[in-house]
Amino acid sequence: MQTSVAGLFRLAEMLERLGIRGRLLLAFFGISALAVLATVAALYAFLQVGDVVDRITTDRVPSALASLQLSRQAERVAAAAPSVLAATSRAQHNEVSAAVALEMSRLEALRTDLRDATLGTVPLAEIEEAAIVLRRNLKELDSLVVARLDVVARKEELLNRLAATTTGSQRLVATGILVMDSRLPQWRAVAADTSLSPDRRAAAMADLVQAIAAYIPQQKAQREISAVNDALVKVANAPTPGDLALILFPLRRSLTALEKASMEIDEKLRTRFRQRVDEFKGLTDGEDSIPKAREDEFAVLAQGERLLAENNRLSRNLTAGVDRLVATADQEIAASGREAALVQRYGTAVVLGSAFLSLLSSVLVVWLYVDRSLLARLGAVSQGMLAIAGGDLRAPLPAAGSDEIGRMAEALSLFRDTAVEVEEKNLRDVEEARQRLVDAIESISEGFALYDREDRLVLSNSRYRELLYAGLEAELTPGTAFEEIIRRSAERGYIRDAEGRVDEWVAERLWLHRNPGEPWVQRRGDGRWIMISERRISAGGTVAVYSDITELKQREENLAEKSTALEALSSKLAKYLAPQVYSSIFTGRQDVRIASQRKKLTICFSDIAGFTETTDKMESEDLTQLLNHYLTEMSKIASDHGATIDKYVGDAILMFFGDPETRGVKEDALACVQMALAMQKRISELTEVWRDMGIETPLRCRIGIHTDYCTVGNFGSEDRMDYTIIGGAVNLASRLEQEAAPGAIIISYETFAQVKDTIDCEEMGHVQVKGIAYPVATYRVIDLKANLADACRGVRTELPHFRLELEPELMSADERGGAATALRDALDRLSHKPGQ
Amino acid sequence: MHRVIAIAILVLVAVFSSARAEVLIGVSSALTGRLAWFGEQGQRGAEMAVADINAKGGVLGQQMRLITADDFCDPEQAVAAAQKLVGDGVVLVVGHYCSGASIPASKVYEAAGVLQISPGSTNPLLTEQGRANVFRVIGRDDAQGIVAGNYLAENWSDKRIAILHDGTTYGRGLADETRKQLNKRGVVEAIYEEYTPAKNDYSAEIASLKAANIAVAYVGGYHAEVALMVRAARDRGYTVQLVSGDGMATEEFALIAGPAAEGTIFTFPADARRNPEAASVVERFRAENFEPAGYTLFSYAAVQAWSQAVEKAGSLKLQAVIASLRGNQFDTVLGRIDFDDKGDLTTQNWAWYVWRGGEYVPVE
């Protein structure tokens, strides 16, 4: 006893030395050993069950399944016999017969398989015998059906022959009947005609008697043919052998009558008729007759019924044998099932027992050791850790010890001391950083505010408060909502925009605050301008910076005022300048400085003929109005055509094309002439208007156009300049204008050369111009060629060595005569071949 | 073991099905009614031809079997008969006899892809319809009418001639062709009339011919009516000369007309019974107490030409057989024959026959 107590103590000491690791290992080994024991037991039980199942699947189930298949096949074969009998044609019979043979051969194959699969325990002998007999029976049935089909085919053939014979014999007697029919009207006529001599009538009667005598056997024959035919058809379908005998008697009688009748048939047809009668006889009696065919059919049918009955019996035998086979297989499967269940029960008991033992040992180890001496102390350490993690650095800790948990407790208390130190240092650092930030934002000149995620004020500098909310500082404590701040400032009239519409403005401002974008400017109630720049920060709040831009704003306004004044001035000035000149100066394309250049221009000079005389009697106001009206209309046309209006001299206008913009000399000249035409047209339209105003004599305009090089540019002093043209060409244009008749347009040769393709002109002769040494060729503009009718248009052709200009409209009769003579002469010369 | 059985069964099935394969041939004609004698000619000719060819091994090694369908020489019945034959699966129809039956039936055969060879339909329209499946082994009425018209013009240009027809496709067609040729030869008929067929008494028609002093009457129609007419004429002592066409070639004409048949003349192709090729066939028919007159040998020849065409084509397919029929010559009881692209014989040989002593003999 003492020894055992001492042994226990020693064991306890040894365990103490092993430490937690060793003791845990020992405990787990114990649990594992029990689990292994349980697994081995289970394995053994499963192997036993597997053996039994194997035995069932390899030995008993296949033979049972094969028996079942055999049974199904046997039923199928048994069901096949009636379908063999039902075949109505050779092809159908072949098909069915092949199908039955196939089923039969499958049955054979299954039987062989079953014999191989079982080890002689199954009663197969009985089935084999039944199958052999059944096969013989099916073969007999098959050949019987072949025989039946042959008999039916033979009967069909005989019936076809009967039909042919009947038609043929009817055909032979039909002729005589037709002749008789055709003669009846004749005899009727003779009988009715009393005017005929007695001899003639007697002869006709004799003829009639003779004809009837010849006709009667034919009619009799026809009747008997029908009777024979009907009887034979009835024979072919006789329901019983007894009926057959019953029909044969009248048939033979009809045949005898037919034979007798054949003796009296027209001799030409007699041989053929007798042949037909012989055919009827052949169909009635002998081996190849219809009654014989029907008898054979009856025999075959009886045989078929007998074989079918036998087949039924054999099929039943086969099915019974197979059923017994299946019953045996069922018993075997049941026995196997019982065996398997027993083994399974033992296996289950062993597995459950070892599982229980294993569970029990685990519970003991866990309860006695793990829970008491490990988990309790671990729990104390873990509570201490949780307390430290939760910030409670003063919580009590478990005492240190010699094992792993004791060392863990010691380490934990060290950790706690360190944590206390670190915490104190962190608090100092945070306070320092915060102070620096406050100093920084206080030092900037803009207002600064920071709002948190919920739009509450977090931080702001004093500039912010004095800039935006002077007098409200007390209310701007951190935590105040943004909406509350702006609403309060709006209500107190700090915001110009919000006057009278506080709620609306607050909503707008909130939207801007929540969707910050570009900086924007706010007008304050005291007249100052604040630029607000808001930005979202990554933590979810908003930073806002406010700058006072009032001075900047005032300077901008001053500048805008000056600019507007300048614009108004320049538009007034524009009226004294040609639009092209104005625009090229104001767009900066041309400098305003004294400079000139030489350019080829088309100059146009227009003047109202006798303007002074016409307007002498007018009041000054009316005159001004008339002149302005006239000049406005003309200037409008000139601008439309792209003319540069140089100056107005009373009622005269000087215009030119080609500067500051040119479309090319030719196009400029053409535009000028077209403009002149448009002006003349407009003046004639305006005559009506002016007449209403009291001007009796219509105003007529004279226009002169010339194209030449001119000097164009700014002329004058540094203080005042004039954009104009100078040169002899201007004088020439003025001279041409004076040459023109009122309402006419005169152009110089230089202009004519540019426009002659498009404009129809008339040559006017030469004028002497002061300052120009040679006389100048002039032309009167008629109209655009496109506007002239063909007949009015001159004929113009220019070829090498040939030139023609013809203006028939302008010619007098003498001139026309002279021209015609000249053309005829030219034609004659042209029609002569060269060298003749 | 069971494999051996299965194979044996398969072999048996194969042997049976090939041995059972047979070629069906249809014969359609008037087997009953007034024209039954012509129907008998067609049927017996085809029957003997089939029996003869089967005895020599059939066509392409297959036996032929004959199916008959009665058309009553009626256009509607002919379509029904044709549909029955097509339904039974025939590849060839020997028929029909009447032109009025052949023409509507040919449409049914064309649609079903069945070959048709007529032994007796002479109306030109049959082969003028553009149906590739239609052939005939007899001449055409446009040729027959020319022969008849010429004969009338050459022999009786100074007599009063009547032209009668029964209104059928054959009768009217032949009468019109004859009249055309007669008029072309400068002779104009005194009477042109239609009569009703299938009556038993034609004395009224004969009385009106006699009253009109007609010496010669050309009849486009079938034998029974012509026989009754000639009988009615002779009964009243009227010696009008009756002239007709190929629809007279049956001994039943003489049986109906009796002694009155003597002297009536008609046109028919050269008598095939005199051909050396036909000698043995004619002999066998006579041994069966059947005179192979009229169309019997034409029907026989139709089957012969077809079987030879099939052998040469090596196929029973319609297009192959048509090409073979058009492209080859055939040795038949009618002599050596061949067909043009319409399906007509390339040579026609119409001749004149006269009734003497109950049978028809060539006019000397």
Automatic annotation (TrEMBL), chain B:
Q: Please name the InterPro entries in this protein's record.
A: Leu-bd, Leu_Ile_Val-bd, Peripla_BP_I
Q: Where is the Leucine-binding protein domain?
A: 23-358
Is the Transport keyword given for this protein?
yes
Q: Which GO terms describe its biological process?
A: amino acid transport
What Pfam families does the record point to?
Answer: Peripla_BP_6
- Lineage: superkingdom: Bacteria
Q: Which Gene3D superfamilies match?
A: 3.40.50.2300
Write the record's keywords in alphabetical order, separated by commas: Amino-acid transport, Signal, Transport
Family to which this protein belongs: Belongs to the leucine-binding protein family.
Q: Which PANTHER family match?
A: AMINO ACID BINDING PROTEIN, LEU/ILE/VAL-BINDING ABC TRANSPORTER SUBUNIT
Name the chain's protein: Amino acid ABC transporter substrate-binding protein
Name the species this protein comes from: Mesorhizobium amorphae CCNWGS0123
